[in-house]
Amino acid sequence: MQKLRWGIMGCAQIAIGSVMPAIQDSERGVIAAIASRGLEKSSAVAADFGIEKAYSSYEELLADPEIDAVYIPLPNHLHREWVIRAAEAGKHVLCEKPIALDSREAAEMVKACKEAGVHLAEAYMYRHHPRIAELQEIIASGEIGELRSIRGTFTYNDAEDKSNIRFKAAWGGGSLYDVGCYPLSAARLLFGTEPEAVTVHGIFSAEHDNVDMMASGLVEFPGGVSLIFDCGMWAFNRQLLEILGTEGRIEVPMPFNAREDDAEFFVYTQEGVRRARATGANPYVCQVDNFAAAVFEGKPLFAAEDIVVNMNLIETCLASARQRKRISMN
């Protein structure tokens, strides 16, 4: 089976802890090189992972003709520059979420990748877990009736770490960018439509460069259905997704971080409660193999335009929270 040769652009924890092990465990990927701003760091990580090549700059990595694709886990404000430079170097790109600071940047990145003929994907790994397809099948089957609303939550508390890059406004910090993007993207995916308006309330902290440390809101979709969500970096750890229909509901624990042994969910109807043991998987591995399929076989699970639409929703939510008003998406 043809394998995609990956270059890793940076030594962020998400790369070392999740994505790089996933590439090594995947069927269709291999790590060929890693780069950092310093050779000492990239060499140490390369030694830990048994990677043949380590570079002291991202430019060297992009110049390597034996690299097919790059993974970019850099801070949010650097995504646009390096996605475009990677595309110009002829590399396919998997970039961490959120892919940009706004929809204008996202559109520029999509355009650059299309012009270069390379595949671009945003690293929402949870969408690649088999459980998502199983949830969509239940919704389509009519078991819970017609959809009425979705409720999504994703919070954690890291407020004491004042040096965290998530608390730097100019770098794309804030809870909507970091974790609110998960329920927002999930609602778009499960409703299968695009939102019409948003109303969001936020807590902006002067101690944390005035980023939104918490946000809660209402996202209106066509037909009167809605997403009610909250997200935060200043509250107790929790995740939940509830999908409500006219004849039942689905409760999904750990909707955004489930792997092999914690992918179950619960279906409530008039017949009682059904515990569904979803297919377990490492979503990072699934993401890597699906990315390779998109490159080699032209079968992307998500269109490039999805990146721009989702970024537009995130920035509109942030604008609503700052302006304290309902904003139409039209």
TrEMBL record:
GO MF, any single term: oxidoreductase activity
Cross-referenced SUPFAM superfamilies: Glyceraldehyde-3-phosphate dehydrogenase-like, C-terminal domain (SSF55347), NAD(P)-binding Rossmann-fold domains (SSF51735)
Where do the GFO/IDH/MocA-like oxidoreductase domain residues begin and end?
A: 133-251
Kindly provide the name given to this protein in its UniProt entry. Answer: Deoxyfructose oxidoreductase
Which residue ranges does the record assign to the Gfo/Idh/MocA-like oxidoreductase N-terminal domain? Answer: 4-122
Q: Does the keyword Cell membrane apply?
A: no
Question: To which protein family does this belong?
Answer: Belongs to the Gfo/Idh/MocA family.
Per the UniProt record, the source organism is Paenibacillus albidus
Ribonucleoprotein found in the keyword field = no
Question: Which UniProt keywords are given for this protein, alphabetically ordered?
Answer: Oxidoreductase
